[in-house]
Write a structure and sequence with these properties.
There is one protein chain. This protein is α/β, with parallel strands linked by helices. It has one domain: NAD(P)-binding Rossmann-like Domain (Rossmann fold, 3-Layer(aba) Sandwich), CATH 3.40.50. Helices cover 43% and strands 17% of the residues. Strand 2, helix 2 and strand 3 form a beta-alpha-beta unit. The termini are far apart.
Length: 254
């Protein structure tokens, strides 16, 4: 059973990239992890093992975070797992799951637009809403945005606009959930070397070099630049940070 002090985080898209790095850094700080993955069970299982090696618990749930009809079932699974762990609520929510779309504005189809909005905005809106009854008063929400909500790079209009919507939503969450002591903030990474977007930033030397040239610290970000920052933001050290957009980009396009 819980000792009463155990913290629990829910991370969407936790099996890869920034979500995975965040999960590991939270586990190192003594937080147990519930996370979603889209399709790669092997990656999800490997994260569970990695979290367990630092002495914390982890559980994985397959979820398409853009399919709102699945959310009630997911919330039920979360409730059951919390009970197994001797808890009835969780502490932290990191809305991280994402898909990429690189298309000029005039070529973006309605289906592509809907996919981006469902995952990055509508899904975040309604999953957060449905999880609220299970979140502790005094809990914390971090929504992942992007430098592309501030900087306009051609070919990312749908993605950047959806992230902009999440940034506005986050301020509303901070205001409306304040009476419960729940904070809500945005972390907006710059370009990071992951497999996101087919590994474009990581694997395309020309793009990597261009982004490094736009960045004050002279390189592209890596997951280890982001996960520890999110873990720190969720800690009590940052309890008075609320309704803020924090860009973590090494100083991109200043």
């Amino acid at each position: 059973m819980s000792n009463g002090n155990d913290k629990t985080a829910i991370i969407t898209g936790g099996s890869r990239g920034l979500g995975r790095n965040t999960a590991i850094n939270l586990a190192r700080r003594g937080v147990d992890i519930l996370f979603t993955y889209h399709s790669n069970l092997a990656e999800a299982q490997s994260l569970i093992r990695e979290v367990e090696t630092v002495g914390r618990k982890a559980a994985a749930f397959q979820l398409d975070s853009g399919n709102i009809s699945l959310f009630d079932g997911f919330v039920g699974q979360v409730r059951n797992m919390l009970r197994v762990w001797g808890r009835d609520q969780f502490d932290y929510l990191v809305n991280n799951a994402g898909t990429s779309l690189y298309k000029p504005f005039h070529q973006t189809s309605e289906a592509e637009f809907d996919q981006i909005v469902n995952v990055h905005f509508k899904g975040v809106y309604f999953l957060t809403q449905k999880l609220l009854p299970l979140m502790k008063d005094g809990g914390r929400i971090v929504n992942i945005s992007s430098g592309l909500a501030r900087i306009s790079i051609p070919g990312t209009s749908a993605y950047g606009a959806a992230k902009g919507a999440v940034e506005v939503l986050t301020r509303y969450l901070a205001k409306e959930l304040g009476p419960r002591g729940i904070t809500a903030n945005v972390v907006a990474p710059g370009a990071i070397e992951t497999d996101f977007g087919g590994g474009m930033v990581r694997d395309n030397p020309e793009i990597n070099k261009q982004i490094a040239a736009m960045t004050a610290l002279g390189r592209v970000g890596v997951p280890d630049d982001i996960g520890p920052m999110i873990a720190a933001l969720l800690s009590d050290d940052n309890r008075w940070v609320n309704g803020q957009r924090i860009e973590v980009s090494g100083g991109m396009s200043l």
